[in-house]
Amino acid sequence: MTSQVSSEAGEALVGEQRSAPASPHHGTEKEVRRLDRVIIRFAGDSGDGMQLTGDRFTSETASFGNDLSTLPNFPAEIRAPAGTLPGVSSFQLHFADHDILTPGDAPNVLVAMNPAALKANIGDVPRGGEIIVNTDEFAKRAMAKVGYATSPLEDGSLDGYRVHPVPLTTLTLEALKDFGLSRKEAERSKNMFALGLLSWMYHRPTEGTETFLRQKFAKKPEIAEANVAAFRAGWNFGETTEDFAVSYEVAPATRAFPTGTYRNISGNLALSYGLIAAGRQADLPLYLGSYPITPASDILHELSKHKNFGVRTFQAEDEIAGIGAALGAAFGGSLAVTTTSGPGVALKSETIGLAVSLELPLLVVDIQRGGPSTGLPTKTEQADLLQAMYGRNGEAPVPVVAPKTPADCFDAALDAARIALTYRTPVFLLSDGYLANGSEPWRIPDVEELPDLRTQFATTPNHTLSDGTEVFWPYKRDPETLARPWAVPGTPGLEHRIGGIEKQDGTGNISYDPANHEFMVRTRQAKIDGIEVPDVEVDDPDGARTLVLGWGSTYGPITAAVRRIRREGGHIAQAHLRHLNPFPKNLGEVLKRYEKVVIPEMNLGQLATLVRAKYLVDARSHTQVNGMPFKAEQLAAALKEVIDA
Amino acid sequence: MPEPLLHLVPKAEAAQSMKDFKSDQEVRWCPGCGDYAVLAAVQGFMPELGLAKENVVFVSGIGCSSRFPYYMNTYGMHSIHGRAPAIATGLATSRRDLSVWVVTGDGDALSIGGNHLIHALRRNVNLKILLFNNRIYGLTKGQYSPTSELGKITKSTPMGSLDAPFNPVSLALGAEASFVARTVDSDRKHLTEVLRQASEHNGTALVEIYQNCNIFNDGAFEVLKDKDQAKEAVIRLEHGQPIRFGAENEKGVLRDPATGDLQVVTVTPENESRILVHDAHAATPTTAFALSRLADPDTLHQTPIGVFRSVDRPVYDTLMAEQLETAVERYGKGDLGQLLTGNDTWTVVG
Which residues are in the Thiamine pyrophosphate enzyme TPP-binding domain (chain B) (predicted)? Predict the structure, then answer.
């Protein structure tokens, strides 16, 4: 069952209606319709709690068993000026009774908490979509602030939409009038009223949210109860008011998922867990050296909570010290990590080069965001690929691994750790803002089935001099992997010095010898080129002539676009890269099988540049740099153009 | 007294000699460089410390002094410019069984690496930082450094440098350093005594070593080394002793009751009882800072050497280790399966 998001104008609700009406629900006599998927967007001021509302709806949806995908979208300012367009924060959630790949192109339902939220988001809602507006916020001044001369609720500009005007603030205040809260305090629960209403509309379970609220406000029980009351009032409002005549069911996506226990997980959380798991599987203490930066800081926050796993987190004075401390810990035998975003990578470059020269394992996690410079801190982009590949002085090759979905960040972290530990090298893990904050269901792995990442420290001399003396040579390599031995301080007899100056092959002593330098540069490159990575798989059921090649977080939109094309009878092959350096060994052969190769990226064609240079393939680039992930429909149209060209 | 952190580092099983700490690498400093004296002093002091040499690590940045680790037969890392304190912080905080030493210079520590130095000091990471101060850039062939005197004529400042110098001791005290000392390369006995105290200190110890660059800034510290001039120029600080100096020990340091500042006076029977007694363990760094300001930055007259300050305060690595232990006590040893599962799950059956 691969019905995809469609957004034809005029379609009232995306998705097929199966057996409507279903049996009455919760004693209501209202009609219940069954849908196969829904896209909801909550939008409000950045202080309105839209992210929390979206998170809660997501949790309810996850525990109900739908497949889901989310797209939080918020400004970089913590509290942008109230009621303005730049201050709008939104959270989009796509959920379904089958497997889905993206947070959806266009919302079926928009919850707009104020005029700014309506104005900023209405363009994305197809005609026929439902709009729930908080009418209390539609005062003249608030509307004028965003350029509404007349009320869009009355001037006919929302004709064609199904508008539900709800005085959310008034209703919330009314529901909480006995709580003895100030107006301001009580008003803050209006997001929970909205959540309650939407939870009723879509038959979401509610226990989780009530438990969550009581835990979150454990120290302020009256606030907890007020939020619970607002949440219930929202639910009851839906059930009793005539304006909401229909509620909807989206059945659990049981058939879409393999057997197992599931949870909802965001990319940054999955990545954090992947790092902790890698430490356990390597039997090494995990050490994070980091400096706060959006959108990577959540990994620092998360890892700092797990000290009982022996995880050390060091919030450094700057990006350079973050990676410096990590490298120092790596020298001492930790599984060392630094987390950052593009601007931080720029600052860390020299130390990454040192790690290349020292040949120590080190994970460099780059949660990409819009650039250059400060760019778009809270928006997504894939424009650090060439920085990861080449952003250092000298020949300093670094493996690059990219996760493709939020949950995949877990496996990608383990894979990056495998490469770092096996080959004694820094490794880039290139996630991005979309993966970091987006979430999806994750089949919780059995820890006993996680890969074994254990590595051997050197403990004895590894070389015999001509006079028979046994010595330790820090740069005598494993002939298969070309990795050098990792001898940690505290190991008697293996005392040695390493540094960023060119080293003599074997001994590691300083060497300026031209032939030695040539040999070392080529050997370091050969080590990275020789890293074992699995072949890239091609999905090509129809023998297509066009291949779409992607990497990283574009997996969801590309796959959704490919499904659309095939559903409409088109032929296209799909391949997705996890390993950008080295490329899978079969990539060249795969590329040459196709007449046309198209590479969609959220940059100006960085993978395309690499592919064209390495394989002399006339790959076409399809690019987008608007801070948002591709929309499946637009991408499908772009791919179709290539197919038809 | 807190537990000496040095006890966490394993001791050598057999007696050691200076030779044990010499690596097989040829020393490549310029003949006559002050670095040789410091290297010899450190290699000579290490057997006295008696640590298992595999548990000793020297980390350096970039510059002449930063070649130091190559010559020590211990573990070592010659890193990149200015970053040694950061790298050493990662090592020391993850491996409390190591004795971690940072070797740096005035350019490395105070210019490109100034940020890391001050933050290591404020955190009080268990590091021993040897700051070789020759008041010049040696490895890049003679540009002025952040400790060069104002108006210094160098290749990059033919009309004289324009920026006022840092006083490394003042800087360290301002950065909340718990141990700050100054010594001179040529005074092996004094240098060794300072190293001894630094090594025993819990937390970051900053030792500024005046070191002669005989190629690009020869004689920069001559006034402190020349026997006759030194009597007038050097103030030897000893904890618990009145601060006095001079050819006839006729000079002393007094606190000006009006300003609270320190001044050098000729000792008389009237003021002798009020001559300042050095207290390296004073609760506040105020007097230590005032002492660091006595020296004339141009002539180096009235330069105090010795331990300015040595106080116990929480050590970052210890606090970090304690938090890990507390977390295990509070939540039990981490269970990965439990963590991955979390609180909100659902099950799909086939």
Answer: 62-209
